[in-house]
Amino acid sequence: MRIWILGFALALIAGQAWAEVTVTFYAHPGARVRGGYLLFPHAYVHATGTVDATGETVDWSAGFTAQSPGPQLLFARGGGVVTAPDARYVDEGRPFLSLAVDDATWHALKARAEWWNSPEGSVYDLRRRNCITFIADLARVAGLRTAPEPSMKPGTFLEATAALNPEAAWRGAPPAPAVPAPPPVVALAPAREPVR
Questions:
Q1: CB proximity list for 131: less than 8 A, separation 6 or greater
Q2: pLDDT tens, 142-179?
């Protein structure tokens, strides 16, 4: 019984020592229509893992977007909001950077993302204060160097940022591209001979 208790205690201690949150920065290529909506290129962050101090499980995604998307954003600023992209959107994205962060950095990232929802932080400008600006801000909180901004090309921005941070550049296999549904098969009935 003592050996079992000792083993269990060691497993708990070792498990907590391995706890960490991994933060991954993604870009979605956009340029497709889904459910009647045109998807634009987008940058977002996804964090997974376990907070060391509390054991809290983390599965959090966030991106910054316009509250009211539309052509008016080509000419004027609008309200912005931090939202979680749906799981399918995250699955279609391409990771560019990934790093493990300590508890203090994780909490600082969450607090900074919440600031972007505040009256001061929630200003959206398509050309100067967009999803890329949000991701760049969070990347700096995580200790990464960032490429010049503003930008309107999330993939290009994250690729340049990854080049500045080779230790955090994504090294995994690229995600499998979304498989389009096969085209419908139309079977033609064989031709009948004319009735005489």
A1: 42, 43, 44, 63, 64, 65, 154
A2: 999 999 987 789 999 999 999 999 999 998 765 444 44
